[in-house]
Amino acid sequence: MFSEGTSKRTSEKISEEIEHLAFRFKEDVSRNHIFFSINGLKNNLDSGMKLFADITQNPIFPEQETERLRSEILADITSSQDNANKVAGTAARAILYGGVNTEYGHPIIGSTKSIKNIQQKDLIEFNQNIFHKSKATFIAVGDIKSPELLHHIESNFSTDFFNHSDPISPPVFPTNQFKNSVGGIYVIDRPGSAQSVIRAGHLTIPRDHQDYFSLAFGNYVLGGEYSSRVNMNLRQDKGYSYGFYSSIDWGQHSSTWLIRGSVQTEVTFESVKEILFEINGINGSKPISSKEFEDSKQGLLKGIPSQFESSNQMLNQLIKLVQFNLPDNDFSESIKKIEALTLDEVNLSSKNHFKPDESVIVIVGDKEKFIGQLETLKLPIHIVDMYGE
Amino acid sequence: MTTSISFEKKILPNGLHVITHVDKSIPVAAVNLWYHVGSKNEEPGKTGFAHLFEHIMFEGSKNHNKDYFEPLQKVGANINGSTSNDATNYWEDIPSNSLELALWLESDRMGFLLDALDQNRFDLQREVVKNERRQSYENRPYGMAYLLLQEALFPSPHPYNWPVIGSQKDLNDANLEDVKEFFKRYYHPNNASLSIAGDINPEEVFKLTEKYFGDLQPGEPVDRLLSSSSNLNGDTKIEIEDSVQLPRLYLAWPTVPDLTESQAALDILSIILAGGRSSRLEKKLVIDSQIAYDINAYHHGQEICGEFHIIATGKPNDSLDKIKQEILNEITNIISSPPSQHEMERSINNIEAMHIRQLEKVGGFGGKADQLNYYNVMKGDPGFINLDIERYKKITPDQISNAAKLLNENRVSLSVLPKQNLTISSPISDRTKMPVTQKRMEFAPPSPQRIKLNNNVDIVLIEKPDLPLVSIGLLTNLGASSDPIKNP
């Protein structure tokens, strides 16, 4: 809504100006952050920066634009219900974070109900209570030196705009209260599907945990790359899937570990068995070998330069640095930490943090085709909707 | 603003084109290999072969008779490939001191792939491809629309008539012998172009390419089809039902070959019509009358005939006819009155910014190595990378009106409608030896500068002066977890 009108410019004027300057304006919302940014050619930076400052400082959330966006977002929510990958992601989130009506479990886009209810005053209130009281950081990458950048910021942003001595913090996610006791299979029925979309995993340690590097390493071996275990098994050995991977979405209070992919409907049951086999494997029944360890370590380390090529990549690196409050020398420090990892540490960390019994398996697919076979696994099976209910 | 890309090009005696470009920003070399073969080289009944090869090429060759990912990933390389109607490309972004490994592998699969291809390997990748087809089209909302559009847009016997991924039937029927024949015809040095960009020494690179590719056998020259119009006649109307809740309209027209004057005009036209909120159709249909949720237009440039697409999503129970009529009216308008200078400027600015953003990466899809290859394969001259933008700047408003005349009654109108009652129940010298793995290269990650603005606001900056681009952002420490939870 920020780019939908300010005290100086209408929504139409803003989009016209941005598009004419060939700038990109983006608003990215994550669980504990909002990132507003512009990107464009240096020779248009003066005008681009004025516009950016106006959008972020003076939004008025006009009624008419709110109505238009409301109907666009409702359409997006409707479309997401048709997309099996989005259904699986939304359901997994709600199940893992204790329900759809929670701070960390609700879909970021909102629900049909919430979007219908939002009023202009709610937006103004959110902006005053939240955005203005946030701890803010400017992040920049590109063909610009610090004095020039400072000048752009100081001449466009009023001095008291962010000058709140006591910024508020995001709500804490109660990791200790919330045990991963929800293990089992959750099926969302989608008759006629050509494939079953699968997500399997559980919550795990936050980014600032001492085992961050060893666990990220363990995940890399399990499913971080093409040659990792789950893809080799489900794609290259069995031909069940076009590709299978696993990832950890690191967070401040807790992170989400998920194995993800789609398989041909006919082999849904066999695929679930293989996934369970791999989770048990990384948990200790098939520890990481010294060859896997050495190959992965070299691969991880030698791949680092490629993460610092484009300005977007650097911007993302800086965002992580600020989000997780990491020291400014973190880029070079983390290389040393990966170098220092040992096979025992990685296997121990994998044993402690990948938990077969607590894993949730979410399947979006044609239920009738595999539910009978799944029952033979003797795991609790829940039939749910896309919100995990 | 000059952002000229310097390069060198040589042609080996066996016909392989080799292009180099030096960029030492990070210690990475981008290896990019194009084969001038795509699905348009296939025959009806035997479709999907070019793409199937994209898979088989990663499975092993004579001197490395196993998976290609493993040796490349453990040196930290990124790897991928793609297939279009016209070409197939393979790339490795690799630490530059391991460049030789990538050349050894690429040359081995160019020269000796078939020595290692057996029925098992073929059958397994065929299953993977069938799953790719399910994942990318059959199990994706609106996914089947593209497959049907292409078939209708280029009626048989046009070589764009069938989809790149092939049909499940042809994939099932494909036999190993046919597939091997296809490889022999199209995968050889004189039907390929190798582009190597990044932290390299061109002289050394030419020596290495001679060493690894110089002894590969050339093949029979491949005949080139330069242009082929579609014989589409009249408005082909297709209506399908899918498991979706919102109806969507696809309008498509066959156009002209890539890198022609009309193609540049059509690119600009797509931005004027539906590129961003101040474009004509988005303003009219999405912002003002709100009869559509979204609208997009693009021109897809291709070797022998391009495609112009306009796609709009409508409201659940409304007919798509009104949207279609509004789109056609706007095309009529633009034919009779050329776009304003302001609209031209906006479009050219966007095309130029996009061009410069694409020069940020040496490798990957659309990086500098890939672009040099694209211009070399399509135009015979990688240097076109530096001239292309001028082509757009010369287009006049009248030329846009002329190009819009190509969007005539010979088109395909495809509607995807919600399925009536089927929705989800709830919402070389010694080729056998792999080049030895090199030590990790020195790399110092950038160190950010931090400026304290006041007690609550910091600025962090990484300077990157190689291209005239700047990104500036503002990050808060509060996000969706602060949504009022009574009303999330």
The oligomeric status of these chains comes to heterodimer
What is the top-level CATH class of the largest domain in chain B?
A: Alpha Beta
Strand content of chain B is 15-25%
CATH architecture type of the largest domain in chain A: 2-Layer Sandwich
Regarding CATH, which class of the largest domain in chain A? Alpha Beta
Number of strands of chain B: 14
CATH architecture of the largest domain in chain B: 2-Layer Sandwich
Strands ordered across the widest β-sheet of chain B: 1-2-6-3-5-4
Largest sheet of chain B: 6 strands, mixed
Number of strands of chain A: 9
CATH fold-level label of the largest domain in chain B: Cytochrome Bc1 Complex, Chain A, domain 1
Return residue spans of chain B where pLDDT drops below 50 for at least 5 consecutive residues: 422-427
- Catalogue the unreliable spans of chain A: none
Helix content of chain A: 40-55%
Short description:
The complex is a heterodimer of chains A (389) and B (488). Helices cover 46% and strands 16% of the residues of chain A.
Write the layout of secondary structure elements.
The complex is a heterodimer of chains A (389) and B (488).
Chain A lengths: L10 H11 L2 E6 L4 E8 L3 H13 L5 H20 L1 H13 L15 H6 L2 H10 L7 E6 L3 H11 L27 E6 L5 E10 L7 H13 L4 H9 L3 E9 L5 E10 L3 H18 L4 H13 L8 H13 L6 H11 L2 H11 L6 E6 L5 H5 L5 E3 L6
Parallel strand pairs in A: 4-8, 4-9
Antiparallel strand pairs in A: 1-2, 5-7, 5-8, 6-7
Chain B lengths: L7 E4 L5 E6 L5 E8 L13 H8 L12 H5 L4 E6 L4 E8 L3 H14 L6 H20 L4 H11 L14 H6 L2 H11 L5 E7 L3 H12 L21 E8 L5 E7 L6 H14 L5 H9 L3 E9 L6 E8 L6 H16 L4 H18 L9 H12 L8 H6 L3 H8 L6 E8 L30 E6 L2 E7 L5 E7 L13
Parallel strand pairs in B: 2-6, 7-11
Antiparallel strand pairs in B: 1-2, 3-5, 3-6, 4-5, 8-10, 8-11, 9-10, 12-13
